[in-house]
Design brief:
This protein is of the alpha+beta class. The chain has 2 domains: 10-109, Jelly Rolls (Sandwich), CATH 2.60.120.10; 115-201, no CATH class. It contains 5 helices and 12 strands. The protein has helices spanning 46-49, 115-128, 141-150, 162-178, 190-201; strands spanning 10-14, 19-23, 33-39, 44-45, 52-53, 59-65, 67-72, 75-80, 84-87, 93-97, 103-109, 156-157. A 6-stranded antiparallel β-sheet has the order 1-2-3-11-6-9, covered by helices on one side. Strands 4-10-7-8 form a 4-stranded antiparallel β-sheet. Helix 3 (141-150) packs across helix 4 (162-178). The longest helix has 17 residues, at 162-178. The termini are close together. Mean pLDDT is 91; it is low at 193-202.
């Protein structure tokens, strides 16, 4: 039986973005991964509305209540209750609440990779290490370099070439560790991957 990364429905508020992560399905090993997001009034996602890409997976936003605006390659897309928006892999995007109240949505990564672990790191950092963030909510250079190096090809900032961000991750991750920055959750080891694959097959 697969073990959850965190207890199901764990909620972690990112106060910088007014974004609450709800880990509704905290299991690895399947073809996709998903979690819920609740955006408060004026809330945003994607590193405080910083445009970014996921090079290895499509991302689907499904709205349960409210309205979300997803900016994809510079074009605004709106989804209301019962509607979905798909961001193709490699497309630059960010999202924000377009409703005068809370918006509740499910975010699905069609290719699972280790997105649950990646976003658990970011979410837990906001609660446990707010000093890892700038006043505007963006992650500081050293911790984001640590995360990008640990989880390659999961997320990159749109404004910089991917090759440069990969090089920065390799160069700066040891510096980040030396300066005391730590991942809240490490990438899955080979044993974890085998165990998850066996559990799914069973």
């Amino acid at each position: 039986m697969r073990q959850p990364l965190v207890p199901a429905n764990t909620r972690i508020l990112n106060p910088f973005n007014r974004e609450t992560f709800v880990f509704t399905h905290p299991y690895e090993g399947g073809p996709s991964s998903r979690m819920d997001v609740v955006l408060g009034k004026g809330g945003s996602g994607g590193g405080n509305a910083v445009a970014h890409i996921h090079p290895g997976t499509d991302e689907i936003f499904t709205v349960h209540s409210g309205c979300v605006m997803v900016m994809i390659d510079g074009k605004e897309h709106l989804a209301h209750e019962g509607q979905s928006i798909t961001v193709p892999k490699g497309a630059s995007h960010f999202f924000r609440n377009a409703f005068d109240g809370e918006t509740h949505l499910t975010v699905t990564f069609v290719t699972a990779q280790e997105h649950l672990r990646f976003f658990l790191n970011l979410a837990r950092w906001t609660a446990e290490h707010p000093d890892y963030f700038k006043p505007d909510g963006a992650v500081k250079l050293l911790p984001i370099a640590l995360a990008l190096n640990a989880f390659p090809d999961h997320l990159y900032i749109s404004a910089l070439p991917v090759w440069l961000q990969k090089a920065m991750g390799v160069a700066l991750a040891p510096v980040a560790r030396l300066m005391g920055y730590r991942l809240a959750m490490a990438p899955a080891g080979k044993a974890d991957r085998r165990a998850n694959a066996t559990a799914v097959a069973a």
